[in-house]
Description:
alpha+beta; Aminopeptidase; 4 helices; 30% helix
Amino acid sequence: MSxxxxxxxxxxxxxxxxxxxxxxxxxxxITEQAISAGGGFGWLRVPTREILNEYWNKITDDxxxxxxxxxxxxxxxxxxxxxxxxxxxxxRKNIAQIKRHFVAPWARGYGLAKSMxxxxxxxxxxxxxKSIQLAVRQTQEAAVQLFSNKDYKVWGENPYYAFINGGxxxxxxxxxxx
Length: 178
């Protein structure tokens, strides 16, 4: 006899300014998983836990980076960074960058990536941001499709965006005016 339970999934998104020990462990765990699955926002090999701890703690200390996390049933399962320019860069003070956006492999398919983008766009509007820009490796097909579906426009490509396994990977540049 087989019983099928309907799983209740609760999605929440927030910007973190401080990390609890549990949140730091969640971030390190999902980073390791994403890197191992080929989508670790630039890392090609899983770094030591010490390096990951230092990385995530520095992000929350950076006043120009908003660490946006997505949770599934209370556990951090995805993240992105919404980054602003230094105040003295007046010509770009109303432009933000989405960087290092990923969802853990086990948490994909629940709409978490979209929810983090929606949250970031709302936050950017509150902060008087007029345009969001980002770059994605061409090989990150799900991310390319996601941003296209969220009305981000391709404005350019760089055939030498990344160098992986002895070859160049093209990068695709997107923007969305808010």
